[in-house]
Write a structure and sequence with these properties.
single chain; alpha+beta; seven-stranded mixed beta sheet; four-stranded antiparallel beta sheet; 16 strands; globular
C-alpha cells in the first residue's frame, strides 16, 4: 500500500512550498518520493518543518533522489561522514554570496539538502532564488544573447573573498577551498534535464564569459544576475532547529545573509549527484582546469 497524503502549501509567489504531513524519519514509498520530486520540479525548493533527523536520516532521505556526492571537492566533511558537509558560520566562513552549489566542476549536484542543527535567535536565514523565472523575465534581445553565452566557473573565487579573510580559520579555509583549482565552462542558459525548462546558470562561481574580456564579462554577468535576485524570484527560509530543506540545484541560487553577529549557526548539507549541464544548442559543459572530480561525484562523465 502506498500513501501520497501530504499538503503542499506554497510559501512564495514564484518559488517555494512547505510539505506538510510527510515524516522523513520513516521509510518513504516510491510513489511518495515521485510526488516529492514532482513538487521539487514545480516549486524548486521544499521545506519540511520540525523533522529532527539525525545524520543517518538525512543521508537516507537525500539518497532517495539519486546517488550521493562526497561532501565537497576540496573542503573536509563531517568526521566519519564523507557525504556530509558542515555549514558552520561560527568559523568566520559564511556563504553570504549568491551561488549555486559547486558549479566549478563539470557535474554540479542535482539537488542539495540542508538540515538545521543550531540556529541563531535572529537572522541566519537562507535565501533561495528561482533562476528559471529569472530567465523568463529577460527582455527578448537579452534572452537571445544569454542563450549563446558560456561562462567560466571557478573555485578560485571563494565566497569569503567578498570580504578579506578575517581570521586564521578563514584564511585556512580559503587555502583548503582552492587547494585544487577548478575551471569549467558552462552554458549561461541551462536546459533542465527533467523538465526541459531553461534557466540562468550563473552565480558567484561564474567569473567570466567565454570570448569576452573581464570588463565586458562583469557587466553582462551583473545584468543577468540582477534578474535572478529580483524580489519576486526569492524565497526566504526562516530556520527552526530540525527543519530540512530540499532544493533543485539546477534551477536555483542561494545566499546566507551574514546578519547574526557571532552567534552560532550550524547546518549539515548533503548533495545528490548531478549530470553534465547542457546548453540551448545541445553542447555540454567542459573542463578548462582541474579534473573530473570523480572523488566528489560518482556521476562524473
Amino acid at each position: 500500500m502506498t500513501t501520497t497524503a501530504f499538503d503542499i502549501r506554497r510559501i512564495g509567489g514564484r518559488i517555494g512550498a512547505e510539505l506538510v504531513g510527510v515524516d522523513l524519519s520513516k521509510p518513504l514509498e516510491p510513489a511518495l518520493v515521485a510526488e516529492i520530486n514532482a513538487a521539487l520540479l514545480e516549486h524548486k525548493a521544499l521545506v519540511f518543518r520540525g523533522q529532527h533527523l539525525d545524520d543517518e536520516g538525512q543521508l537516507r532521505f537525500a539518497g532517495l533522489f539519486g546517488e550521493l556526492t562526497g561532501a565537497h571537492p576540496t573542503v573536509d566533511s563531517v568526521d566519519g561522514r564523507p557525504n556530509i558537509l558542515p555549514v558552520d558560520g561560527g568559523e568566520g566562513i559564511r556563504a553570504n554570496h549568491w551561488h549555486t552549489d559547486v558549479t566549478f566542476v563539470r557535474t554540479p549536484p542535482k539537488a542539495s539538502t540542508l538540515r538545521s542543527l543550531v540556529v541563531p535567535p535572529y537572522g541566519g536565514n537562507t535565501l533561495i532564488a528561482n533562476s528559471q523565472t529569472a530567465y523568463r523575465d529577460l527582455p527578448e534581445a537579452l534572452r537571445e544573447l544569454a542563450d549563446r553565452l558560456w561562462a567560466v566557473h571557478t573555485n578560485d573565487y571563494d565566497y569569503a573573498t567578498h570580504s578579506r579573510p578575517s581570521s586564521e580559520a578563514a584564511s585556512e579555509h580559503r587555502a583548503k577551498f582552492v587547494s585544487t583549482k577548478y575551471r569549467t565552462a558552462h552554458p549561461v542558459v541551462r536546459v533542465h534535464p527533467e523538465s526541459g525548462e531553461r534557466g540562468l546558470f550563473i552565480g558567484g562561481f561564474a567569473q567570466s564569459l567565454v570570448g569576452l574580456n573581464s570588463s565586458e564579462s562583469r557587466d553582462l554577468l551583473r545584468i543577468l544576475q540582477s534578474y535572478v535576485t529580483r524580489p519576486e524570484n526569492l524565497l526566504r527560509i526562516v530556520w527552526e532547529p530540525g527543519d530540512v530543506v530540499l532544493f533543485d540545484n539546477r534551477s536555483t541560487q542561494h545566499y546566507a545573509p551574514d546578519d547574526y553577529g557571532d552567534l552560532p549557526r550550524r547546518l549539515h548539507r548533503i548533495t545528490v549527484a548531478g549530470d553534465v549541464p547542457v546548453g540551448v544548442d545541445g553542447r555540454h559543459s567542459y573542463i578548462l582546469e582541474g579534473d573530473e572530480a570523480a572523488h566528489y561525484t560518482p556521476a562524473a562523465a
